[in-house]
Write a structure and sequence with these properties.
Layout lengths: L26 E2 L11 H10 L13 H11 L6 E4 L1 H13 L6 E4 L5 H8 L4 E4 L18 E5 L11 H10 L5 E4 L20 E6 L12 E5 L1 H11 L9 H12 L1 H24 L2 E3 L6 E6 L4 H10 L2 E2 L1 E2 L9 E4 L3 H15 L1
Parallel strand pairs: 1-11, 3-4, 3-5, 5-6, 6-7
Antiparallel strand pairs: 2-8, 7-8, 9-10, 10-13, 12-13
Helix pairs in contact: 1-7, 2-7, 3-6, 8-10
């Protein structure tokens, strides 16, 4: 143990992001980034905001971004919280709503940052198993919990839980915050935002990293009852009063406003996902039903770990999770149609 570390740091198992390889050019299908650039209006707004005003602190309340998001979702500004990426928003949510409570509950196969935050913030948690098809059976979700977190669509599987099922959990747990992590919601699922005015215990977290091509700017937000948002603000203002910078603010506003470009990109990704699934099924892959910008695949004869290495050697990066229950699956981000044709042309001879 390093003598300068705080107690408990050595025992942490940090989140492991998808690998970034500088040694050669890869077809990069391992980090769920959008294959298309940000809207030209976003880039113009960022360039315009890169001026002398950068010497000033940004608006600590991010009011312009909040109002833009509120208008987009037909909510009030006090229903919106904005932070540096949805991971930061999630971290603030763990601190605001789940410390010193009964066990926080989430699926045993889900976003691997959830247990990391629990250990970091000393939050007790319980997981529940998914079905054989990686879906949530709401009757298997433990009751009397300190809160529930569901990634919807789920990561890394891409499966989606219908809004009617989420309502069952909201009604069953009125005294606990139900957090729905909708990082991938724009690729086919129905958002829970429509339930916010109906359930005071619902918090919806989204990001501009995926469907709006701003992973490099780190903009995330939460939508919920004003009392929940106030809790997040109390945590934020005890940690960093100026979370969203001036350039990110300008980019975020235009990314949300340029709906035509957004729809164009998401439609292209959805169509490419459908084409890729059909091609993989011809190659004897089992593809889990996905509502995300990635797919979760396994092959009848070839082990996922071997397939991962074969693809990497041939210049294609996908994500392999050496974890129980999913160690024979690969997660493949959806790139451009050109990317996915290269992927299919490469993976076919490996498995045939």
């Amino acid at each position: 143990m390093n003598k300068y570390w705080s107690n408990g740091i050595e025992s942490l198992t940090p989140y492991e992001a998808g690998e970034q390889q500088p040694d050669r050019d890869y077809v990069k299908l391992n980090t769920n980034e959008n294959p298309y650039p940000p809207s030209p209006k976003v880039l113009a707004a960022i360039q315009e905001s890169a001026n002398g005003s950068l010497r000033l602190y940004p608006d600590p309340e991010s009011n312009s971004v909040k109002q833009t998001i509120a208008d987009h979702y037909n909510l009030e500004k006090n229903n919106v919280f904005v932070g540096n990426g949805s991971d930061e928003v999630l971290a603030f949510s763990f601190l605001a709503f789940y410390q010193d409570k009964p066990d926080l509950v989430f699926p045993n196969i889900s976003y691997t940052f959830y247990p990391v935050y629990c250990r970091l913030f000393d939050i007790s948690y319980t997981t529940f198993p998914l079905t054989g098809e990686f879906e949530i059976d709401v009757d298997k979700v433990p009751e009397q919990s300190g809160g529930i977190i569901i990634a919807n669509p789920n990561a890394p599987t891409g499966t989606f839980l219908a809004i009617e099922k989420i309502e069952i959990l909201l009604k069953r747990n009125p005294d606990a915050v139900i957090l729905i992590d909708e990082a991938y919601i724009d690729f086919g699922g129905q958002s829970c935002v429509s339930l916010i005015n109906k359930y005071k215990n619902l918090l919806v977290v989204q990001t501009l990293s995926k469907s709006r091509s701003l992973a490099g700017m780190r903009i995330g937000f939460a939508l919920g009852d004003a009392d929940l948002i106030n809790g997040l603000n109390r945590v934020k203002n005890s940690f960093n009063a100026y979370p969203v910078d001036t350039l990110a603010t300008a980019g975020a506003i235009e990314a949300i406003r340029d709906d035509d470009y957004f729809q164009q990109c998401r439609k292209a990704i959805i169509e490419t996902r459908g084409w890729t699934v059909k091609e993989l099924e011809k190659l004897s892959f089992n593809v889990v039903s996905s509502m995300a910008n990635f797919i979760f695949i396994t092959h009848e004869q070839m082990a996922a770990k071997s397939l991962y290495h074969e693809l990497k050697n041939k210049g294609i990066l996908v994500r392999y999770f050496d974890m129980p229950d999913i160690d024979n699956y690969l997660r493949v981000s959806i790139g451009t149609m050109e990317d996915m044709k290269i992927f299919i042309d490469t993976i076919g001879p490996i498995v045939e």
